[in-house]
Write a structure and sequence with these properties.
single chain
């Protein structure tokens, strides 16, 4: 990952330049959106909780308006964590390789379904007008999230840092809007 630092930064600059002014309107966003923030009610509905944002970010930054796609990227990373955690729990057990493959398939399916559902709302003002700009912003925000996760894991659960490391390595080979 460190060897790719300069090329990664240059790539992120290219993304920002390519998007230009087509980033959509800035909105109040969750700031720490992941599967752990979504609860299913007894009625079968879903409730989203904990809107205070990422705890490590300064309060002023958490209150700023931002792209709604930042939260989408957080959920996409959460699917990666869920799949990686399940696969890791089965390592060394019989049929672990098949389960790892199924976990990866589940992640791809969850990403695709979530993105299709999110984007099916039509021409929302908070989204870029062009789909390639949506995908570019997702790549940018997912990259930002994966590096935040590395820092978090190194400080809190170093034995889990492999999950965001693998995510960082995979992002360039399979861009964020790949669903």
């Amino acid at each position: 990952v460190l060897e790719r630092r300069d090329s990664e930064l240059a790539h992120l600059d290219e993304i920002v330049a390519a998007i230009g002014d087509d980033a959509g309107e800035l909105v109040r966003h969750h700031g720490d959106y992941h599967l752990g923030q979504v609860l299913r009610t007894s009625a079968g509905d879903f409730q989203i909780i904990d809107f205070e944002g990422e705890p490590a970010r300064p309060l002023a930054e958490r209150r700023e308006r931002n792209s709604a796609l930042r939260d989408v990227a957080g959920m996409l990373r959460s699917f990666a964590y869920a799949a990686a955690t399940l696969a890791a729990e089965q390592r060394g057990k019989q049929a672990a390789q098949a389960l790892e493959q199924r976990a990866a398939e589940w992640e791809r399916g969850a990403r695709g379904a979530f993105l299709r559902g999110y984007l099916s709302g039509g021409n929302a003002a908070f989204l870029p007008d062009q789909r390639q700009h949506v995908d570019a912003l997702l790549e940018l925000f997912e990259t930002e999230k994966v590096y935040y996760e590395m820092s978090y894991e190194l400080n809190n659960r170093p034995e889990w840092v492999w999950i965001p490391l693998n995510g960082a390595l995979a992002l360039r080979s399979t861009p964020a809007g790949r669903a």
